[in-house]
């Protein structure tokens, strides 16, 4: 689960990770009030969306006066901000962070990530921070240093120094950096984060470091342990279809292709996506209704997929184990009756009560395409969309 920059910075403050003074604003008036309270200029006006690259997209502006704060706030609030992370449709800006401008000596990069391959927390840092970090990673990857922290040992003093020296920090800034990194690590672990990124981490003229930007991503599977984080969730930033699916406990992820698919079990879902690709088509989603789905869940899964305009055909691939084929078939029939089917639907079903399931589908008089096995299903779905 992602949160906004202003929320991440509130969390940073609680863990003594230094950030500039500032507050969230929902209107131009509020933006001006907050700016007045900061006691000087420049003031930074920043779009709050769940995507990076805002600076390059025109979503971060430095205001030298109250007139400029007003002008920038008017311009950015309500704009559709397009960055390399939002996709071409962009994201509507509904809130701003109004912050005290900083005198920047140097822009650095610092992040913490869970590294599955080494089962550790990796600290990544670079002295080439700022808006072109993607290019640094691509063209001069040796300028990004990595330090692996064993989660059982925790972050060690020598590792902090290794990162600090790697960043080329002046000796006077080491104390400030050491506090920042160890507090950031504590926060990372305490909240089951999967990623914390500060880009830029800035070095100021008085040899202190602070987080000018803040991105945090939490492991959604651990949210039950952090009820306070649930309040920070912003549904307007999430894919509306994924939000709808999560209401029914469906594992749904929106993808780019045009073949909608409904499957039970994550492994079967992955295999089904592979056979769709193999047959020359592209999946529009990942939809796992789970091992023990009810016919109501199946109905909602089908309804959500049919509501997706990019879906040109649907492949239903079910192995009836805990989820019986007759229950599944009833869900499909109920959904089809309510929504109506105007696109080809290929069904492949095997397992418990399969004959009963097939009878329910046949008796319903729906226009479904039956497949005898997996490869038959793949060929039929590819033929339907190509
Ligand atoms: P992002 O583009 O979405 O990553 O947004 P950032 O929060 O990183 O801001 C983009 C850029 O704006 C930063 O890399 C800085 O160069 C600049 N910026 C942000 N805040 C300040 C500030 O207080 N003072 C100055 N001089 N520049 C700032
Ligand atoms: Mn940034």
Summarize the topology:
Blueprint lengths: L4 H10 L7 E4 L2 H10 L5 E5 L6 H4 L2 E4 L2 H11 L3 E2 L9 E2 L3 E5 L5 E10 L4 E7 L6 H7 L4 E6 L7 H10 L7 H17 L2 E11 L5 E3 L3 E4 L8 H4 L9 H8 L3 E4 L4 E5 L2 H13 L6 E4 L6 H12 L6 E8 L4 H15 L5 E7 L2 H10 L4 E3 L3 H12 L1
The structure holds guanosine-5'-diphosphate and manganese (II) ion.
Short précis:
The protein is α+β, with helices and mostly antiparallel strands and 386 residues long.
Report on the structure:
The structure is a single chain. The protein is α+β, with helices and mostly antiparallel strands. It folds into three domains: 1-20 and 103-237, ATP-grasp fold, B domain (D-amino Acid Aminotransferase, Chain A, domain 1, 2-Layer Sandwich); 21-101, ATP-grasp fold, A domain (Dna Ligase, domain 1, 2-Layer Sandwich), CATH 3.30.1490.20; 239-385, Rossmann fold, CATH 3.40.50.261. 37% of the residues lie in helices and 24% in strands. The protein has helices spanning 5-14, 28-37, 54-57, 66-76, 133-139, 157-166, 174-190, 227-230, 240-247, 266-278, 295-306, 325-339, 354-363, 374-385; strands at residues 22-25, 43-47, 60-63, 80-81, 91-92, 96-100, 106-115, 120-126, 144-149, 193-203, 209-211, 215-218, 251-254, 259-263, 285-288, 313-320, 345-351, 368-370. The strands form five sheets. Strands 7, 8, 9, 10, 11 and 12 form a six-stranded antiparallel sheet that branches. Strands 1-6-2-3 form a four-stranded antiparallel sheet. It has a four-stranded parallel sheet with strand order 14-16-17-18, with helices on both faces. α13 links the parallel β17 (345-351) and β18 (368-370). The chain is elongated and about 80 Å long. The protein starts with a helix and ends with a helix. 40% of the residues are buried. The mean pLDDT is 94. Bound molecules: guanosine-5'-diphosphate and manganese (II) ion. The site of guanosine-5'-diphosphate has 17 residues, from α3, β3 and β10.
């Amino acid at each position: 689960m992602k949160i906004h920059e202003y929320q991440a910075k509130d969390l940073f403050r609680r863990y003594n990770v230094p950030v500039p003074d500032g507050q969230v604003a929902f209107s131009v008036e509020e933006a001006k009030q907050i700016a007045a309270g900061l006691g000087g200029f420049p003031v930074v006006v920043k779009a709050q969306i769940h995507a990076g690259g805002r600076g390059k997209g025109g979503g971060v502006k430095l205001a030298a006066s109250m007139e400029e704060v007003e002008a920038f706030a008017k311009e950015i609030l309500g704009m559709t901000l397009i960055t390399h992370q939002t996709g071409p449709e962009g994201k509507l800006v509904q809130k701003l962070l109004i912050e005290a401008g900083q005198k920047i000596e140097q822009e650095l990069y610092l992040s913490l990530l869970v590294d599955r391959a080494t089962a550790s927390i990796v600290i990544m840092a670079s002295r080439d921070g700022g808006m072109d970090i993607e290019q640094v990673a691509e063209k001069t990857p040796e300028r990004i240093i990595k330090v692996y922290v064993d989660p059982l040992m925790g972050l060690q003093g020598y590792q902090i120094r290794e990162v600090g020296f790697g960043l080329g920090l002046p000796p006077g800034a080491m104390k400030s950096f050491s506090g920042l990194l160890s507090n950031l690590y504590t926060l990372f672990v305490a909240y089951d984060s999967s990623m914390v990124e500060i880009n830029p981490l800035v070095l100021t003229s008085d040899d202190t470091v602070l987080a000018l930007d803040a991105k945090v991503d939490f492991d959604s599977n651990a949210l039950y342990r952090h009820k306070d984080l649930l309040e920070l969730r912003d549904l307007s930033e999430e894919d509306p279809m994924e939000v709808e699916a999560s209401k029914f406990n469906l594992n749904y992820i929106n993808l780019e292709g045009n073949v909608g698919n409904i499957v039970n079990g994550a492994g079967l879902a992955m295999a089904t996506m592979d056979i769709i690709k193999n047959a020359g088509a592209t999946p529009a989603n990942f939809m796992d209704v789970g091992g023990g789905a009810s016919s109501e869940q199946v109905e909602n899964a089908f309804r959500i997929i049919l509501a997706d305009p990019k879906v040109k055909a649907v492949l239903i691939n079910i192995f009836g184990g805990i989820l019986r084929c007759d229950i599944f078939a009833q869900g499909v029939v109920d959904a089809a009756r309510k929504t109506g089917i105007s696109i080809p639907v290929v069904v492949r079903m095997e397992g418990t009560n399969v004959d009963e399931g097939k009878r329910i589908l046949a008796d319903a008089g729906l226009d479904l395409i039956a497949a005898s096995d997996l490869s038959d299903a793949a060929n039929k779905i590819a033929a339907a969309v190509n």
